[in-house]
Amino acid sequence: MPDTLILVGGFGLPDRTASATRAIGLARLFRSIGMNVIIMGKITPEVPPIQGPTEMEVEGIRCVDIRRPFPGRDYARYDLSGESVMALIDSLPAGSVRAVSAYNHAGQATWSILRGCKARGIPAILDCTEWYGWEGKKILRNIQRMAWTEFRLRVLTRKAGNVIAASRWFSDTLPGLNRVLLPFVIDASAPKWKPEPPRLALPDGRRRFLYSGSPGLGMIKDRLPVAIEGLGALEAEGVPFEFRIAGMTRDQYLADRPDDTALVTRLGDSLKFLGRIPHADSLLELRATDYALFFRRDDRVANTGFATKYVEAASLGIPVVTNPTSDIDRYLTDGHNGFLAPDLSTSAIADVLRRAATLGDADLLAMKSVCAASNPFDIPPWQAPARAFLDALRPVR
Fold first, then answer.
1. Rounded to the nearest 5°, which phi and psi values hold at 218?
2. What are phi and psi of 379, to 5 degrees?
3. Residue 320's beta-bridge partner residues?
4. How far apart are CA 102 and CA 100, in angstroms?
5. CB 98 within 8 A of CB 129
6. Which of helix, strand or coil describes residue 165?
7. How far apart are CA 313 and CA 346, in angstroms?
8. pLDDT in tens for each of the 397 residues of the chain?
9. DSSP annotation string for 115-126
10. Helices (H) and strands (E) in the chain, counts
11. Do 43 and 71 contact (CB within 8 A), yes or no?
12. In angstroms, rounded to a whole number, what is the distance separating the alpha carbons of residues 69 and 187?
């Protein structure tokens, strides 16, 4: 019986990127239902040296570098070819690979992987959480990336026949395929995901908000300027708060948003830029905040995926302030375990931030207790759907 599942992607292992967190979570889920899992990602920022090492172990899972899975030779670029993936498959016992799952992989490489899997009689899965939109000013780059994304999501998903979707919206665009909904999976038994007893972040009555991550080119992805503008309205009203931003410096923000210089200056010590920090430190920041905060446009880009930021906050018992995109409103009830802004207007953002910032101590602690009581992304609820999905795998067309 084939029992090995290979997860393929540009994962920044062990935890340098959100995609790596997703890969580890899915690996632990599939292991819990009896699969042997190998992750192919980037074990170091740079390509491993020719003589290795080319592997590492993360939480007991074998991880192989997708750029150089074996020492002693070079391979074709992983974003253009499936050569390195096929090399790993061919190194394993014949018939042992149940399937290969490619996560948001470049269109050319995905096509190559599908051809290689078909030739070997191995099912292929596409794990899709990104439908890229226009970012930045590089016209050719945007056209190429968007064209290949359309090809991958509209054509290659049908060739593979098996799709992991992060949202119901995206799953519904693929009728007739073998699909499973896995927004994100966390092994809640791991120490790093255990919530702490609810506590207030600051002793002086102020509420602490945290944004952690990369807001994308032009701040399009997470609408960080919208959050800062909303908090600026609170500052003008005399509502105290602290907003900590992990992922960029003040200079980096203002280089992209020079028109916000006066507002950032006015906010003073209420606004703290932490720069880029390791993922472990970002989780410590999350534990020490009152609210995780991010806002996204309600569009195809946001609705295809599911925010890692929400999963991490929910797993650590931290309320989230956001707006309803993807499937977030299936997990977040306004005023119960966080706050939802109905839209991205200045008044709506200011209002939802005001409600969060002025919530009383007892009510905030009660909200944090609700968040810590259960983790909807823990492994057990997702085992049955994952098992049914694997049992129904289809061959590559």
1. 70, 15
2. -60, -50
3. 292, 338
4. 7
5. no
6. strand
7. 24
8. 579 999 999 999 999 998 999 999 999 999 999 999 999 999 999 999 999 999 999 999 999 999 999 999 999 999 999 999 999 999 999 999 999 999 999 999 999 999 999 999 999 999 999 887 767 677 787 777 788 888 899 999 999 999 999 999 999 999 999 999 999 999 999 999 999 999 999 999 999 999 998 877 666 677 899 999 999 999 999 999 999 999 999 999 999 999 999 999 999 999 999 999 999 999 999 999 999 999 999 999 889 999 999 999 999 999 999 999 999 999 999 999 999 999 999 899 999 999 999 999 999 999 999 999 999 999 999 999 999 999 999 999 9
9. HHHHHHT--EEE
10. 15, 14
11. no
12. 27
Instruction: State how far the Cα of 5 lies from the Cα of 234, in Å rounded to an integer.
Output: 50
Q: Which amino acid is at 90?
A: D
Instruction: Name the token pair of 61.
Output: 């899972």
Cα 391 to the center of its chain, rounded Å: 26
Can you give the three-state secondary structure of 245-296, one letter per residue?
EECCCHHHHHHHCHHHHHHHHHHHHHEEEEECCCHHHHHHHHHCCCEEECCC
If you search the block for the tokens 């996204």, which residue do you land on? 296
Angle ∠(233,236,240) on CA atoms, nearest 5: 90
Cα gap 300→277, rounded to integer Å: 29
**Domains defined along the chain, listed by start:** 4-185+379-391 (3.40.50.2000), 191-373 (3.40.50.2000)
Please report where in the chains the tokens 């439908």 appear, as a residue: 131
Say if CB 214 and CB 336 are below 8 A apart.
Answer: no
What tokens does 1 get? Answer: 């019986």
